[in-house]
């Protein structure tokens, strides 16, 4: 898939509308259109990185920014204190549907245990 065909690249570029909650030079965050929790935000690098499996040492700064942005967004949305979950699916078997690296921030209710 080319960046031009990537739905997240098009959202970042403003070609597809989204309910944005955060944007800086490195990452963009917006509400998921199919939420699984009261707070369900996708945090994506502005650079097209297909998945964690495609990340290289050159991406370390942006990968770190995903986490610091997640903390800020959780605070802004009122779930930092009660708790939240960050999920990154990688590859088809890992449940990745959109092949642009993204982190799900889930919160607003007690989330079940994993595994």
Characterise the protein shown here:
It contains 2 helices and 5 strands; from the N terminus they run H-E-E-E-H-E-E. The protein starts with 6 loop residues before the first helix and ends in an 8-residue tail after the last strand. Helix content is 20%, strand content 22%. It has a 5-stranded antiparallel β-sheet with strand order 1-2-3-5-4, covered by helices on one side. The chain has a single domain (3-107), classed as HIT-like (HIT family, subunit A, 2-Layer Sandwich). It has helices at residues 7-12, 60-76; strands spanning 20-23, 27-31, 39-45, 84-87, 103-107. The model has no long low-confidence stretch (mean pLDDT 95). It has 115 residues and is of the alpha+beta class. Strand 1 (20-23) and strand 2 (27-31) form a beta hairpin.
List the helices and strands and how they pair.
Layout: H1 7-12, E1 20-23, E2 27-31, E3 39-45, H2 60-76, E4 84-87, E5 103-107
Antiparallel strand pairs: 1-2, 2-3, 3-5, 4-5
Q: How is the main sheet built? A: 5 strands, antiparallel
What's the CATH class, please?
Alpha Beta
Domain module count = 1
What is the overall silhouette?
A: globular
CATH architecture: 2-Layer Sandwich
**Looking across the biggest beta sheet, what order are the strands in?**
1-2-3-5-4
Name the structural class. alpha+beta
In percent terms, what proportion of residues is strand? 15-25%
Count of helical stretches = 2
Rg from C-alpha positions? 14 Å
Output the CATH topology: HIT family, subunit A
The poorly predicted ranges are none
Order of helices and strands: HEEEHEE
CATH superfamily: HIT-like
What is the terminal-to-terminal distance?
31 Å
The total strand number stands at: 5
**What portion of residues is helical?**
10-25%
Q: Could you report the average pLDDT, rounded to the nearest whole number?
A: 95
